[in-house]
Amino acid sequence: MLRITKLGEDVLRQVAVPVEPEEINDEFRVLINEMFETMIEANGVGLAAPQVDISKRFFVVIADDDVRRVFINPQIVATSSDLVDYEEGCLSIPKIYEKIKRPSQVTVQALDENGKKFQLEADGLLARVIQHENDHLDGIVFIDRGDAEFKKEAEETMAKRQKRYLEKLKAKEAKERKIAAKKAAKAAK
């Protein structure tokens, strides 16, 4: 399992750099498989490279058709004019959801895991996931597309969670140091 970055980490707000053709190799495909495993374990439907602390332009998706899709250096080349509301969440912003308006259809061009160029027209959940994950490559998270008050509350909630996490981590480390010191003292006798 890869570690999923959380809101507040710089990588989620950076514009990711393109993947170079020579980077698409067996090692890269192993990373893609690890991303799929991480996403599935976390009950997600999409996972972008910045969400696993890699500032590169690619993401993986398994939408409601259960097809594993890889998008490397994606470009959304067309969107429908009709917008639809749908409640979104994000593995990098856990347990926070908001209805977000997005185009119901998209056309995307990208490279697959073998570096082969393809174009895909998508609608429904797949179109939404593609847009959501593509936003991550531009340093945009779904709360940026919602209500300003909701965004503020989500950022405050995540900041509080991060503070609690760091406090627990600090306490755990202090406890481990105390135990290690006791063991060292016992061993010195």
Describe the structure.
With 189 residues, this protein is an alpha+beta fold. Helices cover 38% and strands 28% of the residues. It contains three helices and seven strands. The protein has helices at 26-41, 124-137, 148-188, and strands spanning 46-48, 58-62, 68-79, 83-90, 93-103, 105-111, 117-123. The strands form two sheets. The protein has a five-stranded antiparallel β-sheet, sandwiched between helices. Strands 4-5 form a two-stranded antiparallel ribbon. The longest helix is centred in the last third of the chain and has 41 residues, at 148-188. The protein is globular. It starts with 25 loop residues before the first helix and ends with a helix. The mean pLDDT is 96.
